[in-house]
Amino acid sequence: MKTVGIIAEYNPFHNGHAYQIAAAKRMTGAEYCIIVMSGDYVQRGAPAFMDKYARTQAALANGADLVLELPVCYALGSAEYFASGAVALLDKLGIIDTLCFGSECGDITLLSEFAEKLSGEDDNFKHMLDRQLRSGLSYPNARNAALQACAPHLINHMNVLMQPNNILAIEYCKALSNRGSSIRPYTISRTGSAYHDASLDNAFCSALAIREAVASSGSLAEVQALMPRTGYEILEAGYGRTCPVFADDISLPLHYQLLSEQACGFTQYADIDTALSDRIIKKLPAYRRFTDFCEQLKTKNRTYTRIARSLIHILLRIEKTDLEHYQSDDYIYYARMLGFREEAKPLLTAIKEHGSIPLLSKLADAGTLLSENGSHMLDMDIYASHIYNSILQHKFADCPDLTCEYKKKIIKY
Description:
By secondary structure, this protein is an alpha/beta fold. It has helices spanning 15-28, 52-60, 72-75, 79-92, 108-118, 123-134, 139-150, 164-179, 207-217, 229-238, 251-261, 274-283, 290-297, 304-316, 320-328, 345-354, 366-369, 372-395; strands spanning 3-8, 32-38, 41-42, 46-47, 66-70, 98-103, 184-189, 335-340, 359-360, 411-412.
């Protein structure tokens, strides 16, 4: 059987996502589509707009056959780390034929050429990149400068590196190449609004546009036409009870965590060096809200998004040593199921037969299936979800009693 993989956040699930799933199956001839999806936190450094089970249900209702959770340490990583973790998960399932992703340029040959140059195998490029970073440039600017110096034939295409879906697409290609994976990459040209476009002027608007429309209006009135019917119904059912969640909803628990640990500093946490730790401590008396604090902390070589991810690493206790060890130990130890379509059961059987990691459907089974490292990674996911659930319970008066993550049942559609 042919199977296509998609790496996603669905924050929230909209018309463009439904289009991508249908197009991915059509263009690759796949019978099944497996989604690797971020859990309750997303790569831009924020809690998810809707919880992972609601987003799983929306994906399954619109063509996905199986949804797996991307561990939180990768979901909150840089583009490179996010892609490496997700690709490793798909690769270890043992049944994925193709990986399909959106991009602004829609040219897999060009994306692969950038991936080859950026893979780290070119000593001249690595030297030039290091030189630019030491000069004080942010990583994106340093990377661009090094490419212009070492790959002049790509100069006319440098705009590719300025667009967010292209950047992730290149990282997916890099990750596949670095693993020597047999999975073939395919790209679909992004349809409708750009990733950062907040306008609502077409049916294929961005997830950002939906989030901002709901935040500004305090209602769902403007977004119904922008989502598949089932996706909208799931959002509507949870509205005011379990969603929407915005970045500043983590302000209070984060403030408590920062105050609790400021005496020791924060350098043990992922993406935080001594300079950022000192800056956090210096500016902590002025803390009011998460988003404002990110703005205060950002600098020429530290973007808002990087700061946001760093602060959530503190909140969720994701340490440098965890990420370094997981990376050296091949990234992933399990595939945790969030939901599946009943007719996709042959897919589950195939993964169990051909996969090199356990397919985890019940947390109660983790103790007998996972290594020590796998158990620790899963514990981080569970802790992250419990923090997210506590935010829901404090924000929404009508929030239902949220079952402990150990008792949550996977979505069957």
